[in-house]
Design goal:
It is built from 18 helices and 25 strands. Helices cover 27% and strands 19% of the residues. The chain has an 8-stranded mixed beta sheet with strand order 11-12-10-13-9-14-15-16, with helices on both faces. It is globular, with a radius of gyration of 26 Å. The protein is an alpha/beta fold.
Length: 602
């Protein structure tokens, strides 16, 4: 697939490409590439190409370079940059070339544009010799005045039009604050404290300490209170004096980061983030235990043959744990094979880091840290769009460490612990809008965790109308008496997968067969949500959510009632689904999260 970020003027530029040869996904409007990479690219992480229309981007040169470098660190798709009429000597294209972009479309004539596009999407891409002409040579005086890309400032009328336009249009953002509190929709506000980040390596010398310290400094620079814990009993903190940092009683402080050994007793909740430098992953059971119990998990690795062998062994040993894998010193031609290798062990994210020689400078891989920690970061909207600054949910001071308190924030740790659960929605009578509620609920959860949404209303399925997928639906699995298996083709976008029924079914003893199906469908890596129509849940569902319209909800304790009508004993549900989500979270039993350093000693 090719994803095309374009202005409206060039919307049809790729229409000459046959859909069966290369599907093209068009996103029209105005974009900030840096924001797109951080927030939206996850929905397109399996694409082969991304085409960027220069006129559709509002990044400055600096932001554009950071977005490109971040994209290349996280994805393998080829970047095609469209800059119609731009010639040799252009400063921006030279910077893009230095950043690793090798495919440019600069022709003006329509037929020449087609030829350049076909060359860019060919297996080899644009030849190095042809792409190199855009690199400014040090000893050659450019005949054209270098052009600097600046942010496009719109008149108020255009801004209002843009605000009413498609959702793909974006405003520039930067991550400069850490989310610290969130309104859970309950009685009290819960403070965000004690987040644990476990960093472990495949081998002993693959950048574990550099990664842990770079991340600690990144978070500290945003204003968070951060601890760094050296968990190696031999290493201790004896390397800090080489950087002119004095160590006092197995602790130190530098640039806002507090250093400890694991022998020092303190509470994780004294800090916003606690970075565990665990060393080599498989050295001990304690390391694996501490890593598995961390909120955020990072594995550092490299690509030499013996290191890949150790990587496979590690992934086998932690196959039920999701993690972020960061590869260092990886050649371009090794990236795709490494991603394919990791894909055999679902649930992991893969990144390729840039060279970072300074332990205390997080900037070379800032986009990676932003992506990994995005659940805990709050975007600051660009000051070039003043009307956004007046919104009530924007904190006045950029240094304040606060969550947005707009009622649309969810406790991410609660959501993550929904993975492995099966939630069955149904209505006490037809016509209550169960499917609408289920779809909103699934989409909200899918912003944070993997979700599988299933059509459980066998007699009157509804999901196929919302999630179109070519080919037979899930009814094929039922007719083959293997309902626990997915359909041959199903909807998948980002974290959200959907198994829809394309035609009604009549199944004898459906409840018993549902129990068997749920047994096979359950997965620790995702939450399963089922639109049951008016059918009550079978044995095997963990949470029973019933939509009612009676005056009082008097169902059994295992049933959670929801209602639009203010029914006594039911969770209210209105146009906004977030209060409903938070109300349901309150009903679930969640695991205790780590509170202290005991997790590295168990």
């Amino acid at each position: 697939m090719l994803v095309y970020l374009t202005s409206n003027l060039k919307l049809g530029l790729f229409d000459f490409i046959q859909e069966e040869t290369l599907p093209v996904k068009k996103l029209s409007g105005e974009f900030n590439l840096k924001k797109f990479v951080i927030q939206d690219m996850r929905s397109f992480n399996h694409i082969r190409f991304i085409a960027l229309d220069h006129q559709a981007l509002n990044d400055t040169d600096e932001e554009l370079m950071e977005g490109v470098l971040g994209f290349q660190a996280m994805y393998d798709a080829r970047i095609i940059y469209l800059a119609e009429g731009t010639k040799q000597g252009d400063e921006l294209l030279s910077k893009l070339y230095d950043a690793g972009v090798r495919n440019f479309v600069t022709a003006v004539d329509p037929e020449e544009i087609k030829k350049e596009i076909l060359e860019c999407i060919s297996p080899e891409g644009m030849s190095d010799k042809k792409a190199e002409r855009f690199k400014i040579q040090p000893k050659i005086q450019s005949v054209e005045k270098p052009r600097t890309k600046v942010k496009q400032v719109k008149h108020q009328t255009e801004s209002l039009k843009a605000k009413k336009g498609k959702g793909s249009e974006q405003e520039p953002v930067d991550y400069v604050r850490v989310k610290m509190t969130t309104n859970l929709g309950l009685d009290t506000e819960k403070e965000r404290k004690g987040i644990v980040v476990g960093v472990a390596g495949i081998t002993e010398k693959d950048g574990t300490t550099t990664t842990a310290l770079n991340l600690a400094c990144f978070l500290s620079n945003l204003g968070a209170k951060v601890s760094y814990i050296e968990c190696d009993p031999i290493k201790q903190l004896n390397w800090l004096p080489y950087y002119d940092i004095s160590v006092n009683d197995e602790s130190a402080e530098y640039n806002g980061v507090f250093f400890y050994t694991k022998n020092v007793k303190f509470s994780f909740e004294d800090y916003d983030f606690n970075i565990l430098d665990l060393g080599k992953m498989l050295d001990s059971g304690q390391t694996v235990n501490a890593f598995s119990r961390s909120h955020v998990r990072i594995i550092t690795a490299a690509s030499k043959p013996y290191e890949v062998k150790q990587l496979i062994k590690t992934l086998e040993d932690i196959k039920d744990i999701s993690a972020n894998l960061i590869f260092s010193f990886t050649a371009d031609h090794d990236r795709r094979p490494l991603r394919q290798l990791v894909n055999h062990y679902p649930g992991h994210n893969v990144y390729f880091s840039a060279y970072s020689p300074d332990l205390f400078d997080p900037n070379p891989n800032r986009m990676i840290w932003t992506n990994i920690m995005s659940d805990y970061l709050q975007p600051k909207l660009s000051t070039t769009t003043p009307h956004f600054q007046s919104e009530e949910n924007v904190t006045k001071s950029a240094s304040e460490l606060r969550w947005k308190e707009d009622g649309e924030t969810l406790e991410v740790d609660f959501l993550r612990q929904l993975r492995g659960e099966i939630i069955w929605f149904w209505g006490s009578s037809p016509g209550l809008g169960v499917t609408s509620v289920v779809i909103q609920f699934a989409k909200i959860l899918a912003k944070s965790i993997p979700v599988l949404l299933i059509d459980g209303n066998l007699a009157k399925p509804n999901l196929a109308e919302e999630f179109n997928c070519k080919g037979a639906g899930w009814e094929g699995s039922w007719l083959k008496k293997t309902p626990g298996k997915p359909p041959e083709k199903f909807y998948q976008k980002g974290n959200l997968g959907v198994w829809s029924l394309r035609s009604p079914l009549e199944i004898d003893q459906a409840a018993e067969k549902w129990s068997v199906a749920l047994f096979h469908i359950r997965s620790p890596k995702q939450v399963v949500i089922i639109d049951g129509g008016t059918a009550p849940p079978p044995e095997g569902a963990d949470l029973n959510v019933l939509m009612v319209n009676q005056s009082i909800c008097e169902y059994d304790p295992a049933t959670v009632c929801i209602s639009r009508l203010g029914v006594e004993g039911a969770i209210p549900y209105g146009e906004q689904c977030y209060p409903l989500v938070n109300g349901l979270l309150k009903k679930l039993r969640v695991k205790n999260l780590p509170k202290s350093l005991d997790i590295v000693n168990q």
